[in-house]
Predict the structure.
Amino acid sequence: MPPKTQFKYYLQNTQNSLDKKNDIWSLPLPMSRKKSQKVDGISLNYGEYFYAVRSFLGKNKFKIIISAISQRLNQDIKPDEIEEIRIYLEKHGEFYHPARIETFINGSCYLFVLNVAISSTGKNYIKREFEILNKLNNEFSFSFIPKVYSQDKIFIKNKGIEISMFLGEWFEGFNEFHISQNNNKYKQAKSDSSIKIVVWDHEKGDLFLSADETLELYSQVAMILTCYYNVETFEQIFPWHHAAGDFVIKLQKNNMEMKLITVRQYAPMLENKNEITKNNTDSDIYLMFEAMLIFFLNLSIRNRLDRLDGVGEIVWSDNIAVEGTLKGFLKGLSKNSSNNLIPDTLAANFINYISCFSKTDLLELCNSIINTYSPMAPELSVIRQNLKNHVDLLYNSIKNL
């Protein structure tokens, strides 16, 4: 390890670094958002977490972090150029305990995310996610998901615990958002709705989105997911959850930008029993439309689900999400077309196809989709309670195109 390199440890958005003298250093690490201190019988304290991250970054003379910075700068960086590394424990997720890594070289700071999986479920996810992110970044030219650099494992001998990690791109200036109650707790936006989207901005202060901003948020979420939808194989990013903070937002000078920070799975929801040919025959087109309709309807439902303030009860979004989802879906198809991922006429022809469905047809299809969900899924009752009204809005939005 280069002798001049310093490591410092922080909790999210704190100014004072931690060390062995702090009481929190030896406290058990919450193993999930539910704040339980044990998962799979594993217990780890904050100090052990920070040292595991340090071991990952310092392994083989900082090979992983040096490689990542060299790729970003398109030039070779040497280990002895690293002056300081700051490790910020960001949060305790359902599967990962991500850290923000700030690396200082020649007076410049380079940011990365290090996803850390401790539980057996998390470790299963992290290996697959690293491979999927690599695959999608190689196959698509879009930049809505993080680049990934390297993955490895660290063994904590005194606990007999193996921890899996991978280093990826950090989206600077982006923040988590959730549905919240308009109760004067946050900065207000002009709207009559008591259910709004609140952005957790740790620098400028948390704030509610306006109606126009909320429409754009749901539109961008739908657009991003549609951009990565493969019309020939039916592969798609799923599952994803607003409640888990999978999407993040950046607001700057009347401009909104969205990113998807995690991809747990990329697979078809429907089995493609008939191979799609490159000739785009009538049967091919019909099969594409059928699968695309299922994708869109499921997207329209999932886009409306969240947990209140990210951790509370499951909640259903404002009606504006329906218009936003349709708008974003069509924009995603347009981007796929302009990137030669689908035929130019497919998006326009799909609108004609979906316009032929009655309100009853759409409701039956949506019920068929949610019948594929796990019967134990906590969101089922909320979906069923709101589904008819949702389909009414969706039907009217399609007719107004």
